[in-house]
Design a protein that fits this description.
Radius of gyration: 17 Å
Distance between the termini: 33 Å
Largest sheet: 8 strands, parallel, barrel
Number of helices: 11
Order of helices and strands: EHHEHEHEHEHEHHEHEHH
CATH architecture: Alpha-Beta Barrel
Strand content: 15-25%
Helix content: 40-55%
């Protein structure tokens, strides 16, 4: 089964936050994405709320619950006490834990799993008690010892950081090497019983090769490239383009949308 598509709404929220105005509407564009066949929505609420605001979370949760009950809500973040409370209030289907410093512009590296095991293990247990699937952000070249440590935390999946692969958009030779690095890491993770997600700088051009090399790929979370495409093609058409790049058709696999009363 081809990987599912989760649309990351952070870039849309960042554009909205340039003005003290309610547009573009994060919730409205999330709805358009789900109507077009996306399988879920992703947000990364940072402490300074520079893109997704805490007030967006209940609106997005309600959107999925009321109109798209088969879709999933994925919340990313560093496992601070404040973040964990926010997650527990929102009850997402999946939580992706990242090792970001609050000042970082974007996620740009995975966990050092061996060193972070003492931090992550109780957090993973807490989240799973709340009914969440837990994914851990992983470096593209994570070795077996690191992946074994990730598995030992009790996490369900890793999310491969694909930034270095996306950065090779103008060099096919380097892209092929970066892809093989990702593929080997994914193979090891799958052999250990970890599910594999991926995200960062993925596009309609580099997705097909990624999906072909990692047949076990469960989900991709895409924001920047997808939002850039949406400025040209519109959100609905863009979701269709990304689904096609994953080897999916929008209509047959489209999440059930319940019409509002």
């Amino acid at each position: 089964m081809p990987a599912k598509l989760s649309v990351n709404l952070n870039a849309i929220a960042m554009l909205r936050n340039r003005r003290d105005l309610p547009w573009p509407s994060v919730t409205r564009l999330g709805r358009i994405a789900l109507e077009a066949g996306a399988h879920g929505l992703t947000v990364h609420p940072r402490p300074d709320q520079r893109h997704i605001r805490f007030s967006d979370l209940p609106e997005l949760r309600a959107l999925i619950d009321d109109l798209f009950p088969q879709a999933e809500f994925n919340i990313e973040g560093y496992p601070s006490d404040d973040f964990l409370r926010l997650v527990e209030e929102t009850e997402p289907e999946q939580v992706t834990l990242v090792p970001d410093d609050p000042a970082q512009a974007t996620s740009d590296h995975g966990w050092a799993f061996v060193e972070a095991a003492a931090l992550l293990t109780p957090v993973v247990a807490r989240l799973k008690r709340g009914g969440c699937r837990v994914s851990l952000f992983a470096n593209p070249d994570a070795d077996r010892a690191a992946l074994e440590a990730a598995k030992a935390t009790g996490a369900d999946r890793i999310e491969l950081y694909t930034g270095p692969y996306g950065a090779c958009h103008d060099d096919s030779g380097k892209a092929a090497k970066a892809l093989e690095t990702l593929g080997k890491t994914a193979d090891m993770a799958a052999a250990l019983g970890l599910g594999v997600n991926a995200g960062h700088d993925l596009t309609v051009d580099n997705l097909p090769a990624l999906a072909a090399r990692i047949p076990a790929l469960a989900e991709v979370s895409i924001g920047h490239g997808l939002t850039a495409d949406a400025l040209e093609h519109g959100m609905a058409a863009t979701v269709g383009r990304f689904l096609a790049a994953l080897g999916r058709e929008a209509t047959p696999d489209r999440p059930f949308a319940r019409s509002p009363a």
